Amino acid sequence: MNAVIDLLNSHRSIRKFTDQPITQEIINTLVQAGQSAATSSFIQACTVVQVNDQSKREQLVECSGGQAYVGEAPVFLVLCADMQRNKLACEMNDAAINSGFTEQFITATVDVGLFAQNLTVAAESLGLGAVYIGGIRNQIARVSELLDLPELVYPVFGLCLGYPDQNPEVKPRLPVDVVLKQDSYNDSSDQATITEYDKLVSDYYRTRTGGNKEMTWSEQMSGMLVKEARPHMLPFLKDKGFLLK
C-alpha cells in the first residue's frame, strides 16, 4: 500500500549479522526514534542500556540460554522499564513517589514495547536487522546486577542489531479475521480459521528447516503454554518495587 506498510509487513527476526559496524550516531538516531513513540501520561519510562563490554556480552549469552548472537551482534541493547527516573522527578519537586502500583508496572512496560518497536522499525528502514531477546529474563536477577539496575528498574528484553547476513522468509501471522473483532469478542469461527492457518505455519517451518521441522502454530502454543513460565519473575519484580499493590 505504501513504503511504510511494506516495511512493517516485511519484518523478520535476524540472527546472523555481517561484521559491518553500526556508528554511534546511528544508534543515537534509533534511540531518538524510540523516544518518539507514544508514552503513557508522558512518563517516558524506557531506559536503554547499550552493552559494549564483551565480557558482559558473554555473560548475557549465558543468561539468555546460550543465544550466541547476543555476543556476536554488532550492537546489543537492553531495554528497561524505568520508574526510578520518575521517582527522581518527584524528589526534585519535594514529593514522595507512591510506587508499587500494578498500573505503573503496566504503563512502564508498555512504554518499553512501544519504544522498542519504533526503534526496530527505524533500524529496518536503514537496512539493519534485529531480533528481540526475551531470554535475558531466564536469569533476570543476574542481568539486573550485571547492568547495575536500581530499584524501580527492570530489564524487559534485549535487542540485537546489525546488518543482516541472512534472508529468512517472513513468518506468517494469524489471519486478521482471528485478531480483529467487531463490537464484542466472538471466537465462534476461530478454530476453523486457526486450523487453516496451522497448515501455513507447518509449510513455513518445513521450508525453513529443509523438512526437519513440521509444527503447527497451535501445536507450538500447546507445547509451550502447559509449562511454567519463568515463575521467578514475580518475586524479582516485587523485590524491584513493582506489583506491590
UniProtKB/TrEMBL annotation:
Residues 10-163 form the Nitroreductase domain. Pfam families: Nitroreductase. GO terms for molecular function: oxidoreductase activity. Gene3D superfamilies: NADH Oxidase (3.40.109.10). The keyword Flavoprotein applies. InterPro entries: Flavin_OxRdtase_Frp, Nitroreductase, Nitroreductase-like. Keywords: Flavoprotein, FMN, NADP, Oxidoreductase. Belongs to the flavin oxidoreductase frp family. This is Nitroreductase. The lineage of its organism: Bacteria, Pseudomonadati, Pseudomonadota, Gammaproteobacteria, Oceanospirillales.
